[in-house]
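Hi C.,

You asked whether I'd gotten around to modeling the 220-residue construct. I have! Everything is below, sequence then structure, no commentary in between.
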Amino acid sequence: MKFHSKLVALAAAVVLGTTFAAADTITLGSYATMNGAGGSAPSTLPDNTAVMYSKSNTYNIGSGASSTWAAAGPNSSWVSFDPQSGPTGNSVDPNGIYTYTSTFTTTGGNYNGYFSILADDTADVYLNGVKLISAGTIGGNSHCADGTPNCLTPATYYFSNYSLLSGVNLLTIDVYQTNLVYQGMDFYGSLTTTPEPGTLLMLGTGLLGSAGLLLRRKRA
């Protein structure tokens, strides 16, 4: 009877533990190391660190919608290494590829969620060296790239049981500048995982079933 009671207690503890298993939720959003002429850091800072450019400072260059750029996403700002490179500035950055990086920390495991990016003119996005989003078609580039991501329409990657590193994860964003006007990018998203409650629940219910079988045999 003592063994049966211990088995029931163990099963109950495992099942109860699944109820309180906390999901790891990560909020992503671009913000800079400095405030630029066009904007400030988002009011609610996301979980990623500030965006870096070649180990130098970056600037928040805008958050509101304009005739040139779409509004920044939730908890984010348009970012650039050049504080005057947005629609409200007066810089003209040379054509080329501008690489930005940002990191965020997770508990590891499989995640669901999304990641969206706006860019002028367009951008490639890599997570831990794996490409998530490819640069859009430049096309006529009368405003920004014709294909997404561009400065008016974001591109989105949806995560489904996507494996992330335990600890620091690295975002790398290559922004393409092709028309000698504005340059910058904005990203935002959310990731969530639950630490395998299904497996634990199966274990707990299995133990409860075993306890019930032992009890029936003992009564028989």
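If it helps when you're writing up: The longest strand covers residues 96-120.

Thanks,
B.
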